[in-house]
Amino acid sequence: MGDRIxxxxxxxxxxxxxxxxxxxxxxxxRAKAEILGEWAAAAREPGGDRINAPxxxxxxxxxxxxxxxxxxxxxxxxxxxxxxHETYFDxxxxxxxxxxxxxxxxxxxxxxxxDLALDLGHFExxxxxxxxxxxVLAAAEATRARGVERTPTVVFNDRWALPGxxxxxxxxxxxxxxxxxxxxxxxxxxxxxxxxxRRPYALPPGG
Length: 207
Fold this sequence. Notes:
Blueprint: H1 18-25, H2 28-43, H3 53-58, H4 67-99, H5 106-115, H6 120-129, H7 131-145, E1 153-156, E2 160-163, H8 168-179, H9 184-187, H10 190-193
């Protein structure tokens, strides 16, 4: 089955600012609690044992918004291309999920750039220019147009979206259905387990 599957990862912000958290969840406190519930679920999955939801819960800052760190990823990419993009992003994930530092703060973002031996002057200038923000905001708009509202969201065959952290077995069942030409809504364990498999956006006629 592996030779018939192509995977592509994309990063995008669902919540751009602290105000967005309040609008979406009702309060910053409720936002943090609900998101850390997703962390706890992810920590129970294979490879998730390093995710530190209790440590993040103990931090006295609101859950960080996505725009600053994703703009920093773009600023890193400007210096070293896709490889530097991925390296900065991976390190930011560690700082966020494991060390539980506030990745919305400029000081933390500069620390990451320093650790990767980036040119700090150019890095900060790119952030100040606002161009990296604009690139991220354009990606956010495209994501919303597809109906994506949660992370992670996995889109299969550019047709079916499965939002939220779910067991690995569920992903495998959906892939098996699609490879076999079956409708994943009917045979995958999504309905039984309460997962919502849906179309992320309108298909062209006949799709």
